[in-house]
Amino acid sequence: MSGPPIHLDPAFIASPDALLEWLRSAVTWDERMRARKTASFGVPYDYSQIAYEAVPIPPELEVLCGRIEATLGFRPNNCLLNHYADGASSMGFHSDDIAALAPGTGVAIVSVGATRSIAYRSKADSSLRFHYPLSHGSLLYMSDAVQREWLHAIPKAEGVGERISLTFRAILK
């Protein structure tokens, strides 16, 4: 069996250094989660038992929403950010809640900072596993089919530096 039907563009952002610097300086991070810091822009979003209120999407992220729409065919109305301070910050195997997403959409992830792997494990056969590098400036898209059939995780990675993932969704209001 082949891996999950993802879309991966390793060079989606032309100048990822500028985006990383903007995120470092402009974002006020929520520290309620132990494993990593988070922030949310756009429509309200409930994530991992934390409720994020509506916050306007800044122009720097609206540009990415437009690029995602041109590439994937849907315009996100929420961007949830996960800040991984180093390789000890991780996320266990899970699948995202797709019930709250607009039909025919999924989750688009833009990664900046250190390259980290995203791991996939089949829900039907846990021995089926795949890893893909999320490089600085990359875009990964997971459709609702990927969420139904696969679990994904960001494993720990020794000696790796800071990474910020920007997860874009079209949430039903």
Automatic annotation (TrEMBL):
GO molecular function: dioxygenase activity
Domain Fe2OG dioxygenase, residue spans: 75-172
Any Pfam family matching the protein: 2OG-FeII_Oxy_2
InterPro entries reported in the protein's UniProt record: AlkB-like, AlkB-like_sf, ALKBH3, Oxoglu/Fe-dep_dioxygenase_dom
SUPFAM superfamilies per the UniProt record, alphabetical: Clavaminate synthase-like
Keywords: Dioxygenase, Oxidoreductase
GO biological process: DNA alkylation repair
Domain of life the protein comes from: Bacteria
PANTHER family membership: ALPHA-KETOGLUTARATE-DEPENDENT DIOXYGENASE ALKB HOMOLOG 3
Name of the protein described by the UniProt record: Alkylated DNA repair dioxygenase AlkB
Originating organism: Variovorax guangxiensis
Species classification: Bacteria, Pseudomonadati, Pseudomonadota, Betaproteobacteria, Burkholderiales
